Amino acid sequence: MDEATQHEGDEGLDWLMPxxxxxxxxxxxxxxxxxxxxxDLHAAMLVVQATHQELPRDxxxxxxxxxxxDLGAYTAEDVVSLLTAIWNGxxxxxxxxxxxRANSPKKGAGAFSWVKE
Length: 117
Fold this sequence. Notes:
Oligomer: single chain
């Protein structure tokens, strides 16, 4: 079975295929939709990370932070830590980082001038 036949009928899902490079605007639209669709923070971050593995975590964190009001109190670095915890530690690792970061003193603005903190 060749690749064209294998992905026949996958219209709209080609952005999930290995090696696909999405335009930043397209990725942001999808991340926004996923963040809105999943009310649970852990689930939203997990599905966004799983579907956008080609993006560096710092960029992914900045994008997720824009669309999740429940991350307003967290820095971009905190959100990167949450993404790492989700990937490496599952739900229990995520919850542990969430608890420790919620009570930690916050540093200054992030390294990205275009990111709202």
